[in-house]
Amino acid sequence: MRKIYHVINGERVPSRSGKTFFSENPATEEIIAEVAYGEAEDVDYAVESASKAFCEWSRLAPAVRGKLLYKVSEKLLERAEEFARAETEDSGKTYQSNLRIDVPFAAEFWRYYAGAADKIRTPVVANEFGIHRYAVREPYGVVGAIAPWNFPLVMASLKMCAPLSCGNTVVIKMAEQTPLTVTMLAELLLEVGFPPGVVNVVHGDGKTGQCLVNHPKVKKIAFTGSSAVGKLIGAQCAQLGKPALLEMGGKSANIVFADADLDLAADGVLQSGLGNNGQFCLAASRILVEESISDEFISKLLERVRRIKLGDPFCPSTNCGPLISQKQLDRVMNYIEIGKNEGAEIIFGGKRAEHLERGYFLEPTVFWKMKSGMRIWREEIFGPVIGITTFRDEEEAIELANDCDYGLGAYFWSKDVNRVHRVSYFLDSGLVFVNMPAYMVPQMPAGIRKLSGSGYNFGLEAIENYTKLKGIYINYSEQIFPWLS
Ligand code: NAD
Predict the structure, then answer these.
(1) Which helix (H) or strand (E) holds 424?
(2) Within-domain flag for 477
(3) Are residues 339 and 214 in the same domain?
(4) What is the pLDDT of residue 180?
(5) Rounded to whole angstroms, how far apart are CA atoms 417 and 419?
(6) Of 3, 2, 120, nearest to 61 (Cα)?
(7) At what angle do helices 262-274 and 294-306 cross, to 10 degrees?
(8) What is the pTM assigned to this prediction?
(9) Alpha-carbon distances of 482 from 128, 471, 473, rounded to whole Å
(10) Fewer CB within a 10 Å sphere, N or C end of the chain?
(11) pLDDT tens-digit series, residues 464-475
(12) 265 and 167 share one domain
C-alpha cells in the first residue's frame, strides 16, 4: 500500500508520534494509502520550517519567485495524466474531467500568479516639498492554509500560488479525505527548485487544523471549507488578532426566465447543479423557473438528468463518480429525507445507485415544490440534489434568489439585454453567471458575501488577501511640523 508522509522542510517525514490514518478510493471503498497523521509537534516543525524559509523567500526578487511558479505550471501540464489518475483514485472525480479541466485549471493559476509576482503596485502620495509618502505591500510571513476535498489539486494550488507569489511561505493542511495530489504537488515544487520549507504539507483532520490556527508563528489563516467550521475559525482568529481569509459554503440560485434559450438553460442548470455531484461551492441547487415555461423546462431538464451516467470514474463514458465518503453519502441522504418530510416532491432519483455494488454512488436527485422556508432551500447539501420552484415575475425571482444566507454565486438565463444588466445588479452575490454555468478564470476577481465568507477570490485583488499594506512617511525637509513648539 502507498505510504504518504508529511512534506516538511523539503523532506518526506512521518509523524513524530508514528500515528497514521487511511485514505480510501470512494468508488471502490478500497484503502489506497496509509497517511501520516499530524499533531501539534508536526505542525510546529512545519511552521518553524516555513518561518525560517520566509526570510530568504520573501527577499527574493519577485520575478525570480515568478519564474519558479511558472515552472510548476509547466510541470503540472507535463504530468497531467499522473495527477489526474491520482486525483480520481483519491476523490472519485472522473479521470476525464481531472485531465481536461482540473489539472489545466490548476496549472493556469500557477501561470497567472507567476506573472502577478512582479506586478504588485502601491501608491506614492508626493507632490509636497519636504515629505515623501508611499505605501508598500508586505507579505504576512507563514500562511496557514486549510482546504477541502472537493477539488483537491485546484484547492491546493489556489492555497499556494497567490500567497507564494507575494513572498509568503505556506503550511497547508488538506482535507483528510484527499491527501494524494497535495503531496505530489509539494514534491513537484521541490523538484523545480523551491527552497525547502517554503511549502510544507501536514496531513490530518480538524484537530490538526486547530494546531495550525492556534500556532503563534502562523500570521494569516486561509481557510476554504464549510461555513460551520469557517465561522469557528473566524471567531478564533478574531480572539487571536490573526487575520483570516474565509471562503465558505454556498447555496446558489439559478433563475430561468421565460425569454431564455431553454435548451441552453437546461444544459447549464444540469451542469451547475449536478456537475461534480453537486460537490462544489458554487453548486446551483435552487432552481427558480418562470411559471409560464415550468412544464416545458422541467421536461427538458429531466431528459438531461436521465442521461447522467454514474459509475467507474476511470471509464471514459462515465460523467459522474461517487460522493467522497460514506459520511457524505449519509449526510446527503439525510437531506433527501428532510426534503420529503418538509413536503417537497422527488421527481427524479432519491436513492443510492442500486446497480453499483461498491462505492458511494447516489442517484442525481431532483425535488419539485421546494419552498423558501425549507431546510433543503436554506442549507448547503453539497451533493447531487437540486430543488425547483416557480416565480411569476422578475421582482419575485430576485427576491427568491436573494432569500439566502449565502452569497457566493448566482446564475440566470435570459435573452433580454436590459434584464441581463438589471438582474445582475440586484443579485446579492459575489459572482453572477449569465447564460452560462460556472466557468472561472484566474484573471477575474470576485468578492465573497454573507455567510459564504470574506476576502477576494482570484485576480490581482487576491494578492490583497496575502499582503499587509503599510503607509510610510519620510520627512526630508530637516524641519518638523510645529505641534508642540
Ligand atoms: P469542512 O469545513 O468540513 O473542512 C474543510 C477543512 O477544514 C478540512 O481540511 C478539515 O480537516 C478542516 N477542519 C475541519 N474542522 C476544523 C477545525 N475545527 N479547525 C480547523 N480545521 C478544521 O469542509 P469540507 O467538507 O472539507 O468541504 C466542503 C465545504 O467546502 C463546503 O461547504 C463547500 O461549499 C466549501 N467550499 C468552499 C469554497 C469557496 O471557495 N468558497 C470552495 C470549495 C469548497
Answers:
(1) helix 417-426
(2) no
(3) no
(4) 98
(5) 5
(6) 120
(7) 50
(8) 0.97
(9) 17, 22, 17
(10) C
(11) 999 999 999 999
(12) no
